[in-house]
Known about the structure:
- The chain is of the alpha/beta class.
- 38% of the residues lie in helices and 23% in strands.
- The chain contains 6 helices and 7 strands; from the N terminus they run E-H-E-H-H-E-H-E-E-E-H-E-H.
- The protein has helices at residues 16-31, 52-55, 60-75, 92-101, 142-152, 170-184; strands at residues 2-7, 36-41, 78-84, 108-111, 114-117, 123-130, 157-164.
- Strands 2-1-3-6-7 form a 5-stranded parallel sheet, with helices on both faces. A two-stranded antiparallel sheet has the order 4-5.
- Helix 1 (16-31) packs parallel to helix 6.
- The longest helix is centred in the first third of the chain and has 16 residues, at 16-31.
- The protein is globular and about 50 Å long.
Amino acid sequence: xxxxxxxxxxxxxxxxxxxxxxxxxxxxxxxxxxxxxxxxxxxxxxxxxxxxxxxxxxxxxxxxxxxxxxxxxxxxxxxxxxxxxxxxxxxxxxxxxxxxxxxxxxxxxxxxxxxxxxxxxxxxxxxxxxxxxxxxxxxxxxxxxxxxxxxxxxxxxxxxxxxxxxxxxxxxxxxxxxxxxxxxxxxxxxx
Length: 191
């Protein structure tokens, strides 16, 4: 069984989502002793944003890296993504990765009946860190976006582990992280 662990926070050791993804991956290792983990740190090694040159595969090294990201995603049974909320959405580094895995003919296709996701059969767990409280609010463009894009790719098994209000006060931060860590125990084992 393979797990792809992705962090995208720019906050390093102060990142809530990095703490949560590490705990989620630890829990998954306990559930799946044979688990193989691949790690991407999109802050330490950002992926170039998609351009016309990227689409034309003008740079062989960039095209090869894009194929590697896509294959890592396709091969993963479980994908754990650290997605902090930046300006009501996801970090641009995470969006750049999504642009490399949302590939027509590989992870989705259009049919006469509409779009069809081709990347199903995997579990997606998103660790979400938010300075404010945005769940079910019109200010949340993060979770609906991630549900939409991965659902479009065929991923139906999506869980969110949220720590909200972490910027309100040190106590709010501690309480939100503790609550999020506790919720990790309720995640089900991937098939």
